[in-house]
Amino acid sequence: QVQLVESGGGLVQSGGSLRLSCAASGSISSINTMGWYRQAPGKQRELVAIISSGGTTNYADSVKGRFTISRDNGKNTVYLQMNSLKPEDTGVYSCNAARFERLGFRHDYWGQGTQVTVSS
To answer: Which of 33, 85, 91, 100 has its CA 20 to 30 A from that of 16?
Structure first.
């Protein structure tokens, strides 16, 4: 089992910055990737950024150049630095940890989510 605890959401004006943190505990060595997803009201959850155990990162096109995902292995924590925030970045941001299994299956763990609201 893996437990994820997020922090750092809040209300910010357009153009501002926030940093989200996701502290992981439990069977962390089994995790292949960690990432951030978000869900805006009335929309499906979407991938924002992901980082592999080897440090490879990927971002949604909408956040490239503005958001940075990083990890501190010593603290078992993943961060999402969000700069130049826009109102369309508003949503519930959830931390994800994924364990890839045989035959293409994966097991996902989720945090409780943290609200990010960007005012115009």
So the answer is: 33
